[in-house]
Amino acid sequence: MGIMRGMMVTLRHIIRPPITVNYPEVERNVPIRARTNLLWFEERCTGCSTCAQACPDGCILVETAPRDDGTMEIVRYEIDFRICMYCGLCTEACPYQAIQAGGRYDDAVYDFTELYRNRGALTARAQEYLAEHDGRYPNGQTQDENPLLTSMPTARSRVPVAGAAGPFGPQHLPGRAERAGGSDEGDGA
Ligand code: SF4
Ligand code: SF4
Prior knowledge:
The chain is α+β, with helices and mostly antiparallel strands and about 190 residues long. It has helices spanning about 1-15, 50-55, 90-95, 120-130, 175-180; strands spanning about 40, 60-65, 70-80, 100, 115.
């Protein structure tokens, strides 16, 4: 009886379609919330560095410079994927969905140093992703549905944040013009 039961299981699976795919010729659809490689979308990034502070491995580097109007210009944005553990904390911390999981899950390279990606490399991959997905971010949104154009100096004013109406806070960093005017009392804080 045991042999018969075993044969029945085998026969049932013979007529079922296979659950495996012929990788790499065929790639399986990855769930949207899978912790695949990170994608950084420069057009959504304010340079606030929240992602870098949230990263337990310290693999995100953000360097900014203040613009005249007090907003921040992103000078460098780099991710060291050699030490990234794909925990996703940076994606959860980003207030603007500028860094999201959704990149390649088979991100293997021959040269280990290629896993250190600078702004240009990250943007190239993000643009590639958007081109392949009809301009849709991994979270399903498009830039039109959730507009945020932080590369424009006035963009931060479109994003309501706590403390936006007050004299201090991230929305009120003194710009170069203000500081040049001699208002440097807050600089020692
Ligand atoms: S996924 Fe985790 S380890 Fe990787 S950059 Fe984000 S916070 Fe850091
Ligand atoms: S990716 Fe997000 S959290 Fe990181 S600097 Fe840009 S806006 Fe801030």
